Amino acid sequence: MTNFGRVLIEIREELKAPFRLNILSDGLDCYSPEWHIKRMTTLPDGERFRSGADRYAAYLETTEGRLRLDLAFASLQEFLPHATQSLRALDLGCGTGAIAVRLARIGLHVTLLDESLPMLDFAKRAARDTGVTEKIALRHGDATRIADSFDGELFDVVLCHNILEYVEDPCAVLRSAARALRDRSSILSVLVRNQAGEVLKAAIQDGDLAATEHNLTAEWGHESLYGGRARLFAAESLHSMLVAASLVATAERGVRVISDYLPPKVSRNDEYERIFELERKLGRRREFAAVARYTHCLAHRAGPVMRDGA
Ligand SMILES: C[S@@+](CC[C@H](N)C(=O)[O-])C[C@H]1O[C@@H](n2cnc3c(N)ncnc32)[C@H](O)[C@@H]1O
Fold first, then answer.
1. pLDDT, tens digit, for every residue of 6-35?
2. DSSP sequence for the chain
3. Is the CB of 90 under 6 A from ligand 1?
4. What are the residue ranges spanned by the domains of the chain?
5. Residue 147: its pLDDT value, please?
6. What topology does CATH give the domain 30-301?
7. What is the mean pLDDT of residues 186-213?
8. Does residue 189's CB lie within 6 angstroms of at least one atom of ligand 1?
9. Fewest CB atoms within 10 Å of the CB: 69, 153, 195, 259?
10. In sequence order, which residues have a C-beta less than 8 Å from that of residue 168 and are 6 or more positions away?
11. Which ligand 1 atom sits closest to the C-alpha of 142?
12. Mutation test of ligand 1: which of 64, 166, 174, 232 has the most ligand atoms closer than 8 Å to its C-beta?
């Protein structure tokens, strides 16, 4: 078995893990609050995406990972600006480049930025394997300081997919992203972990009533892949952040409303297309989107943005 295959199996086990109760060698119940706190403090935030890039790549091969990518990409495609010439996109916290490569395949020129070199290596290989190397530019850097990396370059599409959960100051990233948008037809695509989704997950998937209650107001959630923490976004807080960055949301979709809770008798592989189509329908409806695991928000600049030095 390849290393990648082994990591994939480990991750499948990890995702199922809330159903198990293990007593670890340190005497703590696996998934007890004490154990969470211990685990959260063992891996520094940025380190997980450097030493664990292969783990993240393997996660994206699971049904959960594929659905998140496929659903976000399908909604993004609906809202791409119409253009007579090739659009330019900037993917902040690009990770393995899974979305960037898809954009390149439909003709966009994409600049990928990430602070993890191993993630950028994955992205480079993905671009090579899909034959889109000439449409891809890789940059190693910090998304909270993109002014340093781009020197006034402007983009038609800026992505912030599952990065705001991990940065110190998500508002700073959104402000920088807004400044990088070319004009008012340009779009910002933001994908974040939904606080309301964490409430349902704790109840339905984990059967953890204390965590369910806690998540109603939690600012941070437990991120099962690395055992770290991830910022949670309530609808109002995301909208306030967008407004503060001179952005206005023009569309919102829920990502993974029911798929995480389907019983084992539903085969994730055999029924993938049906689950995907169902999730597309549910994610468009406000009442279901409100409790999805992720919120996908498409936004535009609210008005003229004062550029640095302008
Ligand atoms: C959860 S992954 C998301 C990857 C990708 N956007 C996706 O949707 O699959 C988060 C990514 O953000 C990157 N990241 C976190 N903080 C960053 C920062 N301040 N600047 C640049 N990249 C950052 C990590 O290295 C990691 O690759």
1. 555 444 544 443 323 222 222 333 333 433
2. --HHHHHHHHHHHHHHGGG---B-TTSPBTTSHHHHHHHHTTS-TTHHHHHTHHHHHHHTTSHHHHHHHHHHHHHHHHHPPP-SS--EEEEET-TT-HHHHHHHHTT-EEEEEES-HHHHHHHHHHHHHTT-GGGEEEEES-GGGHHHHHTT--BSEEEEES-TTTSS-HHHHHHHHHHTB-STT-EEEEEEEBHHHHHHIIIIIS--HHHHHHHTT-SEEEETTTTEEEE-B-HHHHHHHHHHTTEEEEEEEEE-SSGGG--TTS-TTTTHHHHHHHHHHHHHSHHHHTTSSEEEEEEEESS----TT-
3. no
4. 30-301
5. 73
6. Rossmann fold (3.40.50)
7. 97
8. no
9. 153
10. 144
11. 20
12. 166
Q: For residue 209, give both structure tokens.
A: 């009533």
Q: Are strands 109-114 and 157-161 parallel, antiparallel or unpaired?
A: unpaired
Q: Is the CB of 111 under 6 A from ligand 1?
A: no
Q: What is the pTM of this model?
A: 0.86
Q: Which two tokens stand for residue 64?
A: 């959960």
143 lines ligand 1 (CB under 6 A): yes
Kindly give the number of the ligand 1 atom that is closest to the alpha carbon of 98.
Answer: 9
- CB neighbours of 303 closer than 8 A, spacing ≥ 6? 184, 246
Residue type, 196: A
**Whether the Cβ atoms of residue 119 and residue 144 lie closer than 8 Å to each other:** no
Cβ–ligand 1 distance for 166 under 6 Å, the answer: yes
Integer Rg of the chain from CA: 19
> What confidence tens digit (pLDDT) does each residue in 111-128 have?
999 999 999 999 999 999
Cβ of 156 closer than 6 Å to ligand 1, yes or no, is no
| 163 Cβ closer than 6 Å to some ligand 1 atom | yes
Q: What is the pLDDT of residue 22?
A: 29
